[in-house]
TrEMBL record:
The gene is LOC108017692. It is found in: Cell membrane. Residues 1-16 form the signal peptide. GO terms for cellular component: plasma membrane. It comes from the Eukaryota. It comes from Drosophila suzukii. Keywords: Cell membrane, Glycoprotein, Membrane, Receptor, Signal, Transmembrane, Transmembrane helix. This is Ionotropic receptor. The chain crosses the membrane at residues 298-325, 365-384, 551-574. The lineage of its organism: Eukaryota, Metazoa, Ecdysozoa, Arthropoda, Hexapoda.
Amino acid sequence: MAWFIIILLWLGNSRAQFVDITSQTEPDLEERLFGLLLRLKTEKIYDTLLIYGRDCAFPSLASRLQVPTVLVSSGSTNFEWNFSSLTLILSCDIQAEREENYRTLMKLHLARRLILLRGDFQPESVCDFYSKKDQYNIAMVKENFDQFGVVYSCRLFQDQNYEKINFSEGKPIFIEQFRNMHGAPIRTFPVVKPPQCMFYRDATTGEERYIGFVANLLNNFVTKVNATLSMQMELAKNGAEPSFVNVTNWAAEDLLDIGMSEALSSRMSNFDTISYPYLMSSYCFMIPVPDKMPFSEIYMAIVSPPVLIVLFIIFCIISVMLIYIQKKSWRALSVTSVLMNDICLRGFLAQPFPFPRHSSRKLKLIFMILGFSSVITTTMYLAYLQTFLWAPPVDPPMTSLADLRKSRYKMAISIYDADVVNSLNVSKEQVVVLGLTKLRHLRGTFNDNYIYPVTGLRWITFNMQQNIFAYPLFYYSETICVNYFDILSFPLRRHLPYRDLFEEHMLRQKEFGLTKLWLDRSFWVMLRLNHSTREDLSPPLRDDYIEVDNLYWVLCLYFAGLGLGCTCFILELITPLTRWGRFRVLQ
C-alpha cells in the first residue's frame, strides 16, 4: 500500500510538471511568433492581417500588433473583400485557407503568407501545394518554432524549393524571387503588326527577333529579370489567325504568360487578363484630304447671290438718280429705262461712257459715285478670280457621319469592327468589310476612295510617311471615331505571379522616355524592315493651266448674252422703229 501511495504521488507530481511545461511552452511560442511578425513588418510593412483558421497562436497576437485584423475561422468568405496589396495572411494550418471567392483570391494572389505547420507536413510538399496555385510568397514555421527558431521560406529558382532560415540570422524571409528568374521561360506569342511588333533576323547570330514599341518593352523585361522568351508558335498551327483577339483569349486560357501584342480591352468586363494601360490613344478614321474646287466652278463660286442683289439695288438707285437729274422729271422713269441705262451699264463694267458737257454738280457727284462703285466691283471680283485660280479653295472637311453619307467615300473596316460601325448608323452600301490583312494592305496604298479606321499611334507613322509625298493625302479625324478612348494593354495570364514587376517595368520605360523614342523611330524601323516604302504614292499634280472645258459656264453666259443681243438687233431691223422707241437709250 505504501508503494502504491508513493507511485500515485510521483504520477501526480509528473503531471503537474507536464502541465506547467505546456503552459509555459504556449506563451513562449506566442512570443517568438510575435517577434517574427514584428520582423516581417520591418522587412515590408503590412497594414492588414488576414487570419484563416482557429485554435492557434495567431488570433491572440492580433491585439498586440495593433493592426486591423480580419478573422476567417471558417477558411473562406462569402463576399468580396477589398484587401490592399500590403495584406499579410496568417494560416493556422495548411488546410486552413479555403478561400472560394474569386475576386478576393485575385486581390490576395501576391500577398505574403505565413503558415503554422501542425502534424507531419514537410516544407517541400507545402511549397509544391502553393506553387500549383501560382502563389510563391510563402513562409512557414512548425510548432517547435519557440525551441529551434527555424523559418522555412519557399524558393522557386533553385534545386531545393525552400530555404531553411534561422530566426537569429539576418537573412530576409520573403524575397522578390522573380527579379532573377535564372533563365526561366516566359511563354508568349507575337502578332506581327507594324509598328507594334515587327519580325527580323539578326544578321550576326541568325536568331529570330522582334522589334517595335510593344516588342521592345517585353524584350527589355526579359533581359531585366534574366528570363527567356518561349514563342508558342504551335498555337497557330490549328488554323487560328495570329490576331490580337486570339492572343488575348490564349492568355485568358493560361496558354500564354504575356502576349507580344495589344489586348482586346474594349469588350472586357474586368482587367484580370490584361495589364495596366501601357498607352492611351484614340481609334478614329483617316480621311482623304478634301478635294480642291475645279476651275470650272470658280467663276460661279466668286459670284455670291447676296452681293449681286446689293449691286443690283445700287445700280437701280444710281440709274434712277441719273434719269431724274437729267430730265428733271419723274415721268421719264420706266422699268426699261432704269434697267437698260447705258451709262450705268458701262460704268459698272468699268467701260468708258459719254460724259455730258454741261453737267451740274449733282450729276458730277453721281458720276463719281458710279466710277467709285465700278472700281470697287471690278477690283473685288478680279482679286477673287486671281486668288481662286492661283490656289483653288478646298471642300470643307468632314466633321460628322452626316458628311460621310453625303460624300463619295466608302468606309473600309475589318471584321472585328463591324459590330461597332453598324451601331453608327452608316449605310451598308458605304461600308466595305475586309479581312485584317487585306485592310492593312489597302490602307498602306493610300487609296483615297476609302476612309480607314486607325489608332492615333499608328497614324504617327502614316503622317511621317506623308512627309515624303509631294502633298499629303489623308488627315486624322478626331470627330469621326470608332472609339474616342482607346487603351493599349498587354494580354496577361490570370494568375501571373510577376504581374506587379511587369507593370512596374512598363511604367518606368514610359517614364524614362523610351516609349516615346520607339514611337518616333517607328517609321524608320518600318522602312529598314521593308514594312513601308519611300515611294511617293500621291498622284501627280494637275496642270495649272486652264482648259477649254473649264470655261464652260463662261462661254455659256457669253453666247447667251450674244444671242440675246443678236435677237434684239434682228427685231429692230424687221420691226417699225416706233414700236421699239421705248428701248432707246436716254440721251
